[in-house]
Amino acid sequence: MTKSPSTLFRPKIGKMAAYKVADAAGLIKLDAMENPYHWPSDITEQWLDKLRTCHLNRYPDPDAKELGAIIRKLTQIPDQFDILFGNGSDELIQILLMALPTDSCVLAPEPSFVMYRQIAQTLDLNYHSIPLLPDSFELDMTTMLDSIKNYQPSMVFLAYPNNPTGNLFNKSFIIEIIEASPGLVIIDEAYAPFADETLINDLENHDNLLVMRTLSKLGLAGIRLGFLIGSTRFIEQLNKIRLPYNINILTQISAEFALTQQDLFAEQTEKICQDRTVLINELIALPEIQVFESAANFILFRTPANQATSIFLSLKEQGILIKNLSPQPGLLTDCLRVTVGKPEENQAFLSALKKTLAKI
Fold first, then answer.
1. Which of 116, 217, 203, 111 is nearest to 157 (CA)?
2. Is 208 exposed, middle or buried (0-12, 13-18, 19+ CB in 10 A)?
3. I want to staple 91 with a disulfide (CB 3.0 to 4.6 A). Which of 74, 86, 189, 249 is the partner?
4. CA-closest candidate to residue 193, choices 356, 18, 34
5. Where in the chain is the domain with CATH 3.40.640.10?
6. How far is CA 41 from CA 51, 52, 343, in A?
7. Average pLDDT of the chain to the nearest whole number
8. CA angle centred on 267, ends 198 and 35, rounded to 5°
9. What fold, for 56-258?
């Protein structure tokens, strides 16, 4: 007798939707918060020379020790804290949530990074989302603190800056949440290079604080590398869940090389931040839309009522792919999100947007 997924898998799986990645073939890709800049040819050649030393017949260093030493120095991680590497931040979120008992509560603001909810629900955890304030997308501290008191969450996720809204939460609010939380608080700093803000220096003051970073937004999205910083007593337990050899040898060598190119990444990051300001100002000049300030490498904006999807499709027809957030319920109704690209890509987006708005 042939078995079906509905009889073999947990019922909740059948009700879930897979994370969709849009096909960007032939389009200007401004939907995924990637660094739009390639490496200069001479740096690419140096990288390829490094890869030629790679022994693909051998397993990689399971602890990525050389890479860890480089990141520890660059990120100025105090000696008493450890690093856990993941195949992107997604795997780290999965490892963190897999460590919790199935009846545990997980709490995060809404809207925020969708994988907090997706992975928590996949693991049958009790996920609670707390809406942000509608006008500012700031943390609703009264509701957050009441929820922490009532639900006693084992884990709280806070993205800093927040995705998809782009804003930095008030740091004093974050500290208040850390101090009020009975469990771990995970600060997701995926977009830290564009905000110049971090809570790494606060690790010494809060034993329930962990800070998560990724190299994806910096310009290495293709190698999928994230890392978690925190107390040794937590990292060593989480390390038991991590699959062996999860960071492959090509990723380790590529990241080790790339992190020696700090001047290049600093130059690219500064350029993106400058272009973000230009793009925000250009969008603010369009009276039909509401633009939200951003400390990340993307910009969230609200379209006229019930027009987000049609504007998204119009832009796509003109060769521009951005992110349509309006189908998500709640505060993102009528909202679209655009990644800051190269100047010519940003101008192509603006031209297509203006053309579309003129028809509304």
1. 116
2. middle
3. 86
4. 34
5. 56-258
6. 15, 17, 21
7. 96
8. 75
9. Aspartate Aminotransferase; domain 2 (3.40.640)
Q: pLDDT tens across 297-315, in order? A: 999 999 999 999 999 999 9
pTM of structure? 0.95
Position of tokens 């192509």? 348
Under DSSP, the state recorded for 262 is H
CA 328 to chain centre: 17
Q: What digits encode the pLDDT tens for the residues 240-295?
A: 999 999 999 999 999 999 999 999 999 999 999 999 999 999 999 999 999 999 99
The angle at the Cα of 75, spanning 72 to 77, to the nearest 5 degrees, equals 55
Distance CA 299, CA 280 (A): 7
Could you tell me the two tokens for 116?
Answer: 């907090």
- Which tokens hold the place of 42? 């001479």
Predicted local confidence at residue 58, as pLDDT: 97
Q: How many CB atoms lie within 10 A of CB 53?
A: 7
